[in-house]
Each structure stands twice: as C-alpha cells, then as structure tokens.
Write a structure and sequence with these properties.
Elements (H helix, E strand, L loop, with lengths): L2 H17 L34 E3 L5 E3 L12 E6 L8 E9 L18 E3 L6 E2 L12 E5 L3 E3 L3 E6 L4 E10 L11 E8 L8 E5 L3 E2 L3 E6 L8 E11 L6 E11 L12 E2 L5 E3 L1 E5 L4 E4 L10 E2 L5 E9 L2 E6 L29 E3 L9 E7 L4 E4 L8 E3 L2 E7 L16 E2 L6 E2 L36 E7 L2 E3 L2 E5 L12 E5 L12 E2 L10 E5 L15 E5 L12 E11 L7 H5 L3 E14 L1
Parallel strand pairs: 9-16
Antiparallel strand pairs: 1-2, 3-22, 3-39, 4-19, 4-37, 5-18, 6-17, 7-8, 7-10, 10-13, 10-14, 11-12, 11-15, 15-16, 20-21, 20-39, 22-23, 23-26, 24-25, 25-28, 26-27, 27-32, 28-31, 29-30, 33-37, 34-35, 34-36, 38-39
Length: 602
C-alpha cells in the first residue's frame, strides 16, 4: 500500500471508529428478527405467537395484556426526531482535564470549561510600548507596525486571517528615542528570522532616527485554515567603531483563523501574548456529540449528529407499558417511507437519519460521508407512558464514502457529503448534482458548514464506498455510567479485552471482554487491557468515570411532542486492524447523546 493511501486509510478508519458504537449489552440482538429462536416464545414483539390476552414483549416473551392506559384510542406508533444540540452538557468524564492541545505539555491541566484550556506560549502580558524598554543599547534597532506603531523587544502581533493568511506591514527602525539609551552611529540594520521574507535594510543611517520601507510579511494559518500560524521575526543593528554596540529584537507574529481570538489593544499598553494554544476541556459532553477511544485517541472529538432525523416504531400497549417494535416502509409511507421506518430488508433496509458528514479539518481530502441503514429490526420498551422512560435497540450498518471536500471552497467549510441547498432545493455535489431535493436537516450553519444533507443527494459514485460497519445502538433516556477499573496492565481501564502480551501482541478473537487477568484464560491471551494499555477515555488519560444522562419526555399520553434526549455509554471492542485500533485508540469506551423529541401517535 502506498504511503498516501495508507495515511488516508488511517484517518478514515479513525473516523469510522467514531461511529462504531458497539454496546456490550446485547439483550435485543436476536429478538425482533421475526424468527422464534431458542429461548423465545414469540417474535417479533407486538406480533403473533402468543395466546389470547397476551402480547409479545421486548424480550420476545409472552406476557399478560391489560387494558391500555396510555390514552384513547390506543397508541400505534412512537415518533422520535433528533434536534439541534442545546448548550446544556449531557454528561461528564471525570476528572475533567485539558486535551487536544497543540502544545502537549499544556494538556492534563484541571479544567471546567474550554476557556480553562487556552494557554499562551512565551506569554508577554501587558507589555509596555517601546518607550518603556530599557538597556543602554535597546534603542539601536526595533520593529514598527504600520498600525500598532513601535513594538517591544520579545513582543508579538496578532491578526485575523483573510483567506487563510495574514499580512503584517512592518519596518526596521533605528536610533529610537528612549530613556537610558543614546543613539549610535549605526553601520547596518537588517532583518532575519523564520517568516519567509526579511524586512528591508536601513543602509548607513548613521546617528539619525529613521525607519526603513514597510515590508509585507505574510503568515499563513495551519491545518488547512483551522489552526493559528506563527513565525518569529528578528532584526539586528551594529554600530561603527570598537567596541561595536549591538542590539537585536524579536517579534512573534500570529495569524488566527477565527475572529475574536486576538488580544485587545488599549491606549496605554498592548497585551501581546505568544501563540495561542486552544485545548479542549474533556469533561462536559457536548449535546448531540459522539465520543470514542481511550486516553490517546488521535482524532479530534466529538462529531455532531444531524437534526431532523425521524424514526417511527410500532407500539403495543398493556396498562401503562408500551412495547416498541420495528415499522416497515409501508407503515411510514406517508411520513418518509424508507427514510423513517425502523426495520431491515436484504435489498431495501430502512435508513436512520439523513447522511452524516464527517469533516476532517486536519486533512479535508479524507473527509467522509456516512449513510446509516437499519441492520436489525428495532425493539424496546417504555415501561410507563406517564413518565416516558425508555430503552431502544436499533442496530445499524454504516456505509462510509470517501469524498473529501466536495466543493473545495474554503469559505463554505468542509462539505463532506453532497449538500441540498436550502435556498434553491438543488443538490450540490454527488451523482445528483443539480437535481431537485428536500433538505434532510436544518443546516443552521449553511453555507459555512457541512449541512443540510439529504438522501435525495446521495454520496456516490459506488467506487467511493470504502466499507460498511455494524453499529449496535442501545439507547435510553436515563443515566448510563461506566467507572474505570484497575488491571495488571493499567490503573484506569473502562473497556478492557484479553490480550496476548507474550507472543503476538494481539487481542483475542473473537473479542473477550474482561475486568481482570483472571477473566483471560485462553493461551497467551492473559492480559486484560485497553488499546496499548492507554488509560482513560476520549483523550483524557486521567478519566475515572464516564456518565451520560438522558432526558425523559414525561407523560406521553397527550400525544404531543415532548423534549427528550437518548444516551448511551458503551464499549467498543478491537477491530483487529493495525491502522484502525492505534489511531482510534480501540478497544476503549464510547458515549453518545441524541437530543430530540418523542411523541405517541394514535
């Protein structure tokens, strides 16, 4: 495999791992497939197979049915629609630590919000303007900015990027008026440094106070316009005579990709910090976010779930209990058909939500588009319709397309999936480019984000499909928690599996979950650990607890939509791929939240 292809595959597999929400709870893995297997009394739930006066429940067992107490007439379907994320955190990994730092030494600090993880390299806060610099030779040479004026030695300038670059108009100045420093007979004054272009020399200035011509110094942002770019400019001067007097100044130039990231200039002093390192506080979970991996996961988290993804499940009622079962495309024909049903078919499975873009800011060329399809019939229950507390299993198959940035327009962000323009209702990109479409989500950031997408605008062509993955959703609107435990290989593991640390350095196949070495008894697979014994979760190697809390909709009897959030905390086993597992830091834990609304329908 060529190096470029290997790098592409590594990033793609890491992104795909973000979607591989493989739960350790497989209570509904067989129930719901329409086949009465060993240990089942009926299948599918809400279907035939039980005696009169009984219903087939969510475990494919027959239970007595009592008159429905969830409204009149009896409800027949439950509708769930995802919504835009709220500003309220849905969970927490504790203790919270700064992660994803551009400067690794800044990571690991305690934090409460992302603002606690903004650190500065070579910080020079509230540095006085050049007339307060000191030293007998400090006035010999300096740097002047066309806008900010004289700059202090070891100071800095910051600007906001335009088209991924900043231009600083600077000049060398000599023999500046400064207390404690007398002018010198400067022989030469010149610039150097790592900014790609030097400032123009000031030739034979003598003892005059003079500046050279302005030079435009360009500084580019990094990581395709998503990270700040910096460079250090140096100027020096030397006088005639012996001993010669010398002076040199340095200025750090920073080009920030987003507005509001540069310090504020006042009339008396200028705050001039060095390069900004914006880490992420891996503590609170973002509403609508997907998280995965151990303490050294190599991909920025989280990825955001699109809104307006609607799914319907059948309901059968006994007292205040509702059993949830899969709907077919015929059941939801008037509400989207294949796009909203929750059953599977070998040729035409139902779809789960609109296309899911996975933009890669570090390398837009390997951004992907995911189509989620129902892999097994959905099944679950609402034990009490007056509270709305629920549990639902919706196994999926994810089709992953490698498309890159479709429109290659930096101002629009990364378009990882074809877009259905909300202003014209026309597809942009993909095989249906220019064809009419209906947006599948609201696209709140259009045209500067990856939405709205639509199944009317498929990713294609077929040769862009790089693989499919099984995903098992085990969702609830209660609280799900995992606590780290200690093994002989590591002190903080959430999702450990049996590993051979003697001969093959591989995890046991099929995956063998464990909580201690005593659980691992096959051959050399005697070590219980996460990937490479990396502690913690989601880039936070200090994590000891993961908790996601959903929101129950309350009473559903009134048949109105009620806000609800479904969550899951789960384990992801090893994939046994030498590229996927190290990059995604798998096996390891995962977490997801789906904000939305739930509604019973007659």
């Amino acid at each position: 495999m060529a190096p470029r292809e290997r790098n592409v595959r590594a990033s793609v597999y890491a992104i795909v791992a973000l979607l591989s929400l493989v739960s350790t709870t497989l209570a509904f893995a067989v129930c719901g497939d329409g086949i009465v297997d060993s240990g089942e009394q009926c299948d599918p739930p809400c279907g035939a197979g039980c005696s009169a006066g009984q219903i087939c429940n969510e475990l494919c067992q027959c239970e007595a049915q009592t008159p429905c107490a969830c409204g009149t007439p009896d409800p027949t379907q439950l509708k769930f629609t995802t919504a835009l994320p709220s500003s309220t955190a849905t969970g927490m990994v504790t203790p919270a630590k700064c992660t994803q730092c551009a400067i690794p030494s800044h990571c690991g600090n305690d934090c409460t919000t992302d603002d606690d993880c903004i650190t500065r390299a070579a910080s020079v806060a509230s540095v006085p303007v050049s007339n307060e610099q000191t030293g007998p030779d400090e006035c010999l040479v300096g740097v002047k900015d066309q806008t900010a004026g004289d700059l202090p030695d070891n100071g800095a300038l910051c600007a906001e990027a335009q088209n991924k670059k900043c231009t600083f108009n600077l000049a060398i100045c000599v023999n500046e008026d400064q207390s404690g420093c007398t002018a010198g007979d400067v022989k030469i004054a010149k610039g150097s440094g790592a900014c790609g272009r030097k400032l123009k020399k000031v030739k034979r200035p003598g003892t005059s106070s003079v500046c050279g011509a302005l030079t435009g110094i360009k500084v580019k942002t990094k990581k395709h316009g998503s990270a700040a770019g910096t460079c250090v400019l140096k100027v020096m001067a030397k006088t005639k005579g012996k001993p010669a007097r010398k002076d040199s100044d340095t200025v750090t130039l920073t080009c920030e990709p987003q507005p509001g990231q540069c310090p504020v200039t006042t009339t008396t002093t200028t705050t001039m910090p060095g390069p900004i390192d914006r880490g992420i506080c891996r503590g609170p979970f973002t509403s609508g976010g997907l998280y995965y991996g151990g303490g050294l996961v190599g991909v920025p988290l989280p990825n955001q779930i699109p809104d307006l993804g609607t799914s319907y499940t059948k309901t059968c009622c006994s007292g205040t209990k509702l059993v949830l079962a899969a709907t077919t495309a015929a059941d939801t024909a008037s509400e989207g058909g294949l796009r909203t049903c929750t059953s599977t078919d070998p040729t035409t499975p139902c779809l789960f939500g609109p296309p899911l873009p996975i933009p890669n800011k570090n390398n837009p060329a390997i951004s992907t588009c995911v189509i989620n399809k129902i892999a097994q019939n959905a099944v679950g229950s609402i034990p009490d319709c007056t509270t709305g507390v629920s549990a639902l299993s919706v196994p999926l198959t994810s089709e992953v397309y490698l498309l890159g940035d479709i429109d290659n327009e930096p101002a629009n962000g990364i378009q990882a999936c074809p877009i259905c323009r909300p202003d014209t209702h026309v597809c942009t990109g993909g095989p249906n480019d220019g064809m009419p479409c209906t947006p599948g989500d609201s696209g709140p950031d259009f045209p500067n984000g990856p939405y709205p997408t639509s199944h009317d605008c498929p990713p294609g062509p077929p040769d862009r499909l790089i693989g499919t993955l099984p995903i098992a959703f085990a969702l609830s609107n209660g609280t799900q928690t995992k606590t780290a435990f200690t093994t002989s290989a590591q002190p903080r593991a959430f999702c450990a599996f049996c590993f051979d640390d003697v001969a093959t350095n591989q995890f046991e196949q099929p995956p063998h979950a464990c909580t201690s070495d005593a659980d691992c008894t096959t051959g050399n697979f005697t070590s219980c650990r996460q990937q490479s014994a990396h502690n913690g979760a989601f880039g936070n190697s200090a994590a000891t607890t993961i908790s996601e809390t959903g929101t129950a909709p309350g009473s559903l009897v009134d048949r109105m939509p009620h806000a609800s959030t479904l969550v899951s905390v789960f384990c992801i086993p090893p994939t046994y791929n030498p590229i996927i597992d190290p990059t995604a830091d798998l096996p390891g834990p995962g977490a997801v939240s789906l904000p939305g609304s739930a509604q019973l329908l007659p």
